Amino acid sequence: MSPEKPNDMNDSRWSSEQWFQLVKEVVTAVLGLAVVLYTLYIAGQTFAFAGDEEKIADAKDVLLLLLGLAGVVVGYYFGRVPADARTAQAQQNADAASARAEQVSSQAEAAADQVDAILDRASEPAAAHARGATAGREAEEASSEDLRRVRDALRGIVAAGRRR
Predict the structure, then answer these.
(1) Taking a C-beta distance cutoff of 8 angstroms, is the pair 43, 63 a contact?
(2) Residue 69, pLDDT score
(3) String of b and e for 22-51 (b: at least 16 CB within 10 Å)?
(4) CA–CA distance from 132 to each of 105, 125, 136, 143 (Å)?
(5) Are 63 and 28 in contact (CB under 8 A)?
(6) Is the separation of the CB atoms in 155 and 112 below 8 Å?
C-alpha cells in the first residue's frame, strides 16, 4: 500500500459538517415533498365535495392553509437554486480578487526590490568619485531621495495588499 492511499481514503470521508448538511437536506426534502403531496391529495379529494356547500366550505379552508404551506415549500426550492448560483459566483469573484491582490502585491514587491538595487548602485563610492562634480552629487542625492520615497510607497502598497 503506497503512502498516498491513506490520504486518498481520508480525503473521501465526509466531515461532520457535510453529514449534518446531508441530513438537513434530506429532512427538508422529505417534509417539503410530504406537504406538497398532501396538498395535492386534499385538492383531489375536494372534487368529491362538489355540490355540498357545507363540506366544500370546510375543504376550501383546509386547502387555503395547505396551499400557503405548499407555496412556501415550492418558493424555497425555486428560490434556492438562483441563490446557490449567486453564492458560487460570489465565491469565484472573491477568489479572483484575492489572486489579483496577491499578484499586485508581488509585482509591487519586485518593483521595491528593483528600487533597492538602484539605490545600492547609486550609493556606491566609486560612482560618486567617477562623477566628481558637486552638481552630480546633488542630483544623485535628490534621485536617491526620490527613489527612497517611491520604494516606501511601494512597500506601503504591498503591506496594504497583504492586510486585505
Answers:
(1) yes
(2) 86
(3) eeeeeeeeeebeebbeebeebeeebeeeee
(4) 39, 11, 7, 17
(5) no
(6) yes
What domain range includes position 72?
15-163
C-alpha distance from residue 150 to each of 105, 116, 117, 123 (Å):
15, 10, 13, 16
| Residue 78 to residue 74: CA distance in whole angstroms | 6
Q: Is-contact 109 81, C-beta < 8 A? A: no
Model pTM greater than 0.70? no
- pLDDT given at position 10: 52
Distance, in Å, from the CA atom of 52 to the CA atom of 60, rounded to the nearest integer, reads: 12
Residue 140 lies in a domain: yes
List average pLDDT for each run of 10 residues in the chain, which is 164 residues long. 48 83 86 88 85 85 87 83 82 88 81 76 59 56 72 77 64
Domain total of the chain:
1
